[in-house]
Amino acid sequence: MELSPRSPEAKLGLKVEDLWEIQEPQLTPSEKLNSCFESIPVSSFPPAPSSEVIEINSDSSLAEAVRILSEHKILSAPVRNVEAPEDASWIDRYIGIVEFAGIVVWLLHQSEVAATTMDGSFFENLASSEFYKDTKVGDISGTFRWAPFLPLQKSDSFLTMLLLLSKYKMKSLPVVDLGEQKIDNIITQSAVVHMLAECVGLHWFENWGKKKLSDLSLPIMKPNQLIKVHEDEPVIKAFKLMREKGIGGIPVVEGGGTKAIGNISIRDVQFLLTAPEIYKDHSSTTAKNFLTSVRKYLEDHHDASPMLRGTITCRRDNTVKEVILKLDSEKIHRIYVVDNDGNLEGVITLRDIISKLVHEPPHYFGDFFDGVVPLPLNSRV
């Protein structure tokens, strides 16, 4: 892959390169990277390709939120408080982040409560239920730990941003323009990995990217700790596991084996809610049937999706660079590590990659998290 001088991400990589070259020689490569990223403000990060920040009004229904997220192919969006006055500051204009993960958590909880009155086409009933159509986004914003509203100011550093997206498990970070009192950009884990992919060929990146996964202790999770669902198990189990374990995706493995036949992500719940005809019976639709049905649905609608390309894998002796390029080109959030026989050995997520790029200095954040609104009580942050 050639480095494009016209790419905003490549230009950003060149800025890191300039800083890398002037670092003190006694610093380790890891310390150099930390210092470089601490010197670059978040305002330097390129805006999303659409250049438009998608927002969802607090009085939108969950059904409307799912439609907006699906249409724009995004996982989350900031929630604008429609009751805030026109001259309100940003802290009063936004009440949280809504994302598929949070909606799934809420819906699964509600569906368990209402399960006694639902039979047959479970999700078809759920998608047409009053609590799905009538519940407002504002009613659930801030009630789940997956997406607290944790904005960055444009003057905050790249190091802060990278640590929040990795160690502190934030999936997206709004960047607030204090002058305009609005969200100027949203930085996601995917956007950071794309930036890294655009830095191929630069000394600082190659120094880090040539390391093998095993050299960086990746994958983090041991094979017997990998959360998975078997192909003949109900697909609802996959979504419940994602809810219980706080993860964004899960591999589907062949019956009784350890070879993956597909991946179900939290984003895929959109198919159950926007096209419930593919899910007729929640007690008998297996994970394998769900994968088959969704793939056929995508083919019929000529909709490109990672799900159509099967399970994306790598091996422990692959380099970080190779994995980054594959994650970016395939537009996926996780890649499964397999052995020579194709058996699952672990999973590597975007967060895992970013977490190996930087480290948190002692007492780095200080009072940074004070006053974050709203911050759920059970948040990790």
Count up the domains: 2
**What topology, given as strand order, has the largest sheet?**
1-2-3
Give the DSSP E fraction (strand runs of 2 or more residues).
5-15%
Q: Low-confidence runs (pLDDT<50, min 5 residues)?
A: 115-120, 373-381
Organism: Nelumbo nucifera (Sacred lotus)
Domain CBS: 49-113, 221-284, 307-365
InterPro entries: AMPK_gamma/SDS23_families, CBS_dom, CBS_dom_sf
Protein name: SNF1-related protein kinase regulatory subunit gamma-1
Describe this structure as you would to a colleague.
There is one protein chain. The strands form four sheets. The protein has a three-stranded mixed sheet with strand order 1-2-3. The chain has a three-stranded mixed sheet with strand order 4-5-6. A three-stranded mixed sheet has the order 7-8-9. The protein folds into two domains: 8-208, CBS-domain, CATH 3.10.580.10; 211-355, Roll (CBS-domain), CATH 3.10.580. The chain is of the alpha/beta class and 381 residues long. The longest helix is centred in the first third of the chain and has 15 residues, at 100-114. The protein has 16 helices and twelve strands. It is globular and about 60 Å long. 37% of the residues lie in helices and 14% in strands. It starts with 7 loop residues before the first helix and ends in a 26-residue tail after the last helix.
In short:
This protein is of the alpha/beta class. It contains 16 helices and 12 strands. Helices cover 37% and strands 14% of the residues.
